[in-house]
Structure formats: C-alpha cells, structure tokens
Amino acid sequence: MGESEFRLPPTNPDGGWARVREPLPAPALDLTAPPTAIARPIATVELRTQLLAPPAAGHPAEPSMQRDRRGVARYGLRLLLSGALGADPEDVVIDDEACPHCGVVHGCTAAAPGAGPTSVHFASLVHRGLAVHALADTPVGLGLAVPDGPAREAMLRARKPARLAAGAGAVARGSCAAPRTAAVARAVEYVDVPQEQVRVVSVVWQERHRP
C-alpha cells in the first residue's frame, strides 16, 4: 500500500508518524465586503483566517476600534458573527468576559437583538500578523503552537500543544459551570493557515447530540 492510499484512523487526532491529515479550509476574511451569510444551524464549524493590518483610511470600522492588530481582529470577528446572526456588526453583543462570581471565562458566545434565542459560540486567536476565527453552535476552541523548526517532524510535534490548547477552550471552566464529563463527544481537527504563516492551529468543538 502506497502512502497516497494510507488513511489514518479517525481516532488519531495528531497523525502520529503516518500521513498528515488534510487540514480544514479557512477562507480569508475580507473586511471590505459585506458580511457573508452563514446558515444556521452550523453543522460542524465555520473557520476564517485574517491577515492583520491597520484599517485603511476612511474604512467604515468601529469608531472606537484602535488601529492595532487585536482591534482589527476583533472587528473581523464581529463582522463574521454578524453573518451568522443576521444582524449589523454594531448590533452584535459579544460575551467573552470572566464570570463575576468565580473569575473564569465559562465560554465565548455572541447574540443580537431580533436574531432569535440561540446564540453562536466562537473562538478567536491572534498571533503576530494572523488571526483565526471559529464559529459553531456548540462550545468551540482554537489553539496555536509554533514549531521548533521547518521540518515535518517539528510540525507534528507542534500538533499536541495546539490540540490541548484548543480543547481547553471548548469546555466550560470555573466553579459556576457544569463539570466536564467523558460523555461529551468532541471533534478534533487542524486548520489550513497561509503557507507563509509557520504555525500549527487546531480547532476542537463539541459534537451535536445524535439521538
């Protein structure tokens, strides 16, 4: 059996020594275009990458947005969420603050007036000139790791820390949240980032209940 015919078992999230699994596509987010409608419910996960640069002069960004990378990434996230909620970006209400009772972030969700009772779960990370955003209808997390070299073995070694970081973001934490149980099924994948961005990004989300 040749390498092109080899397929990893679905339970092997890191790929081991064998053939590297194809990462999930993450199209580039265009801040100059109207929000793209995202159908609900989201079957698995919606991913976008965003190359970060300060907004151009005259760009209709948030008035309070600072011209830095995190501010630009935050606006990109808000634009993406507006497409899933069917609302204007300025009407999206983002909840990713620490709980006032236990001081821990229980989860990251967004909602909008008139968008219905169902909120959207999201994850977002920023590393240097790259942002990655993930939306799902269940808790979702993203994790990033920088390989210690350009070789394939270094990329494989970086998968585990990226996966663990993503997994930590896909479960509720803190004394106010329901405890994590082994009965929750989670999907583990890796994200296709621009080739010039030498880093490994993993996404983990809770799978929807199947009766």
- The dominant shape is globular
Helix tally equals 2
**How much strand content do the residues show?**
15-25%
Structural class: alpha+beta
Give an overview in words.
There is one protein chain. This protein has 211 residues and is of the alpha+beta class. Helix content is 17%, strand content 21%. A hairpin with an 8-residue loop joins strand 3 and strand 4. The longest helix is centred in the last third of the chain and has 18 residues, at 152-169. The protein is globular.
Which terms summarize this structure?
about 210 residues; alpha+beta; 5-stranded antiparallel beta sheet; 3-stranded antiparallel beta sheet; 8 strands; globular; disordered N terminus
